Amino acid sequence: MLMDLFDRLFPINRSITGDGVRQSLRILGEIVPIRQREYSTGTECFDWTVPKEWNAREAYVKDSQGRKLIDFADSNLHLMGYSVPFRGSVSREELLEHLHTRPDLPNAIPYMMSYYKENWGFCIEHDRLPEFTDERYEVVIDSELKDGHMTIGEGFIQGASDEEILLSTYVCHPSMAINELSGPLVQTMVYRYLLQKKDLKYSYRFLYLPETIGSLLYLSQHGEELKRRVAAGFVVTCAGHGESFTYKKSKRGDTLSDKAAIHVLKQSGKPYKVVDWNPFGSDERQYCSEGFKLPMGSLMRTMYGEYPEYHTSLDNRSLISEEALLESVQMYVDVIETLEANETYECTHVHGEPKLDKRGLYPYTGGNRTDAEKRRIAAVTNLIAFSDGFADLIDIAEKLNVMGKDLRDPALLLEQHGLLRNVNVVDRLDLAAHWG
Amino acid sequence: MLMDLFDRLFPINRSITGDGVRQSLRILGEIVPIRQREYSTGTECFDWTVPKEWNAREAYVKDSQGRKLIDFADSNLHLMGYSVPFRGSVSREELLEHLHTRPDLPNAIPYMMSYYKENWGFCIEHDRLPEFTDERYEVVIDSELKDGHMTIGEGFIQGASDEEILLSTYVCHPSMAINELSGPLVQTMVYRYLLQKKDLKYSYRFLYLPETIGSLLYLSQHGEELKRRVAAGFVVTCAGHGESFTYKKSKRGDTLSDKAAIHVLKQSGKPYKVVDWNPFGSDERQYCSEGFKLPMGSLMRTMYGEYPEYHTSLDNRSLISEEALLESVQMYVDVIETLEANETYECTHVHGEPKLDKRGLYPYTGGNRTDAEKRRIAAVTNLIAFSDGFADLIDIAEKLNVMGKDLRDPALLLEQHGLLRNVNVVDRLDLAAHWG
Amino acid sequence: MLMDLFDRLFPINRSITGDGVRQSLRILGEIVPIRQREYSTGTECFDWTVPKEWNAREAYVKDSQGRKLIDFADSNLHLMGYSVPFRGSVSREELLEHLHTRPDLPNAIPYMMSYYKENWGFCIEHDRLPEFTDERYEVVIDSELKDGHMTIGEGFIQGASDEEILLSTYVCHPSMAINELSGPLVQTMVYRYLLQKKDLKYSYRFLYLPETIGSLLYLSQHGEELKRRVAAGFVVTCAGHGESFTYKKSKRGDTLSDKAAIHVLKQSGKPYKVVDWNPFGSDERQYCSEGFKLPMGSLMRTMYGEYPEYHTSLDNRSLISEEALLESVQMYVDVIETLEANETYECTHVHGEPKLDKRGLYPYTGGNRTDAEKRRIAAVTNLIAFSDGFADLIDIAEKLNVMGKDLRDPALLLEQHGLLRNVNVVDRLDLAAHWG
Fold first, then answer.
1. Which intervals hold domain DUF2172 (chains A, B, C) (predicted)?
2. What is the pTM of this model?
3. Which of B273, B306, B341 is the last residue of a domain?
């Protein structure tokens, strides 16, 4: 089902504006509720402005015999994004000024765009340049660049608290697989999973944006609210390829997002690496800017720029797999369940250890115990010892080298017995009151 | 002499209450003064209560031919600790419900107890189970479980200051060698050594307790006083076996106890490892609980749970040696002498270096020097350079990679010359005034 | 030219006072302006006092046949520094009490002195002791030890700010090459280089002192001023020998000096090691004493005490090279240029990234870029991302693994575009106003 969805989304000509975005959001909206919001050309967002809306119907280059040497219908990567309308006969020299290739990757169509400067261009395989031997060519670009709108998709699940987890992905790239279709696909599966869960502690927000300008627009309208509400969050991208996971930390580097993601990766037993935040990535560049410093990391597999096919036609279906996508979904779910389970407790018996056997929490007689019994006793005893009102369950799990969410049930048991007191609850109620 | 003492103590049937404890303390009291204190059954200590007093005279299981298959007289480990009185004929099935073995260690009698739930039981080698082929057995347990007292032993040496070093060991295990007899033996030898010392800076307290309930009782009566007085301390246990030392840190992990013990182990040149505090150990679980957070570490050799014979009849004389016990005594003495030597100084000449030659502390002319001279000059020069009123002698010794107590004499020399000022003294006088 | 200078300075008989110092400063003063200051015998500096002035004209030991066995004219190391005048016949036994050798380095004349206790002595190769077979010897020391002056050389370059970089070297050793002539030579070349620079941000002070007593004297007169003015500084010594650089940190260990020097060494690609401050070195012992804690490190090659020829006649021209000296000069210049370039900026656009293409700072269209373009774009983007008003250019360069001073031009460009604000300027103006 995931790959069917992929196959429907892949051929659509997405850009930062235009009907490709709307169509993609409609298809994903069959799976999860996505509200489309439209923002007019010219809307200011900090140092930036929403550009004109762009749509393309047809585009080709014909030689003097009338053969189509390049055709947008074959691959939407052939047309440079935001190419202005053009129709005319051009010399070989003039054409070559508008032809983009990747000499280092000669069988790939490069992905190019010129959002903020009006221009036109075609992208082809470098190996095909020798075909362009004629003196003159007919160029047709039947596109439209005019005042219109930019589209942003948004989903939301209300939890017990107004504190929220923010997932953000982008929908502005034409036919490429790792970057970007793996992002919206994985985010949508995570969203669908959470829709089925009851008793969520956090609220969840899912953004589907045109990269950069979309997150800037959203921050310009909701940034202050996000600063108050976002407890953790991730930019979902590059989630379909490679054996190893990559976690890019938030700019602060020690946020709850970072702690939970790194903890889960470590406990997963799967290969992974952690990289520091840097300003060469996706929307975490905006979310983590000094004015917002949102706790936004990015949990990826092989990341942008680290595979040779990046930003070319070679980043296609053959590079990704349903298995890898689903494993990424599971990793996000594990991180989210860890965040849901995570609480900070304070042991109510501070003078020596509380007596556990009289509460049925410890066997009266020593002896041979099952492994499950041993784990339960270990969890209970450690939770009592290390719940000091500061260390949360993830901190304690790190110390014990166990999965944080596995401490949830023993913690709740001890809370029922009055041995642990949840020191988060008050804050959460306060926040809820604050946000009504 | 140490092994003679061991041989007198080993056969005694100790438990958390009863005459075995009293008899053991009397024997140790021949070496050092130990005051026995009695606490009534029912005395509350935080979440716990002192249980009934238990004593056992005789206990056996006979088969239908009247042969004693199990006899307490052979090993006090055969009778489960705190077994209630019982006398009667039982079926094979009923007997087996009360028989405890260790299938993973088939030639060992396991150590079992049921302090807080009335029950009876016998412990035998797993290999001997096939001997129990009869249909019925005669069981006799001539024990006594009734209101009485729990006994705690305490020794004390008054030093110049009321700040104290606390050593604590436990005397509640029947015939086992590493855990526990090595503990009381090593503590007693350290106590004896300190009795001969004059001019002790710290006071010294030595507790001989039933594990857990004993330290809880002591803390419930003297915990607040200990919080004000204890500068450093150690739970003395598992000190007779293994090539390598183990230091278990206090819960805070950076106390004076931890600093001194790790420093001495490092300088000793002997193999050692350091482990973090955790709630699976001995009385440091109580001493380090959040309400007290006493600076109690534990300096051991091979520790509980890390040798297969732990808590069985195989933990016997063959595993320990007088040499290992005495080496542990020496390590404790070195730690204590390091604490005694440790002071914090401030150099009185802060503008450049003081001139040492005019005070006879440095040769006027360079030239060939003996190693001892070089060490003395190095110590004097470093003490002047690094005594900033914050770094103590252990800190400076760590920086110089020398034994902390070796800096004591050069420091006193510099103090006599007025070049160092001891910044601890005022605090110590204050404390003494406070405690009168 | 550097080795010519070396050859003129080498034979001079320097000590902590006397004409040798004055003559050496005059020779260096041909290259750079050095003001000589004179301080009277008896001037107090903290715990020390300026000693009498010492000069030596002639000194020898003759055997009974009138042969000169030792002659100051052959090497000024033969005469112990500060030897008092003496003329007379002495027995072999008495002579040997005044003869110093190095049995561990039998072909070396040791370097000896007795500044603060009146005495006389000669130093010779240990191998030559068998030549002293006569019963009596004629000893002549035509020296002068009387009230006079101690000489200190000082240079200064006024920069835009009164904050200053302090370089300090010593000129009190007789004929030795690594320790000490490499120090004054390298410092003088750095001084000469800076004299040619315009628009220096910092002021620069260059001290040429007799070791220890000279820095104590200077601190006693100008220490409080230095505390207010010195932003960074280095003791220049042992700069002419060895493949590897050595950086000895300031006592605080995290000063701007330490940060800049270690950063430059790391980026240089040359072998180096970093050692902690300790009280066995040169004038950083005084500069870093608790009363001043100046940020003085020491950037050396093979350091004092780490080569066997140290403080003997074997520390001569053969050990050093013009190439090594000039490489040291370049390393100091790199450190200084890094300090000059280092500023702290704050990005003025904190809400998302500023739009760079509309300012000509980023290409409108993606595509193939030169390495220089990539580096420029990377620098600009990183500076915007990491300039948070706290991280300075060295911090950012460390993060990016590039040379700090290479970030200067991109930072100035961004400052011109109003995207970065220099947060140091105000402080610097304030300081300048303060010092008027």
1. 53-144
2. 0.92
3. B341
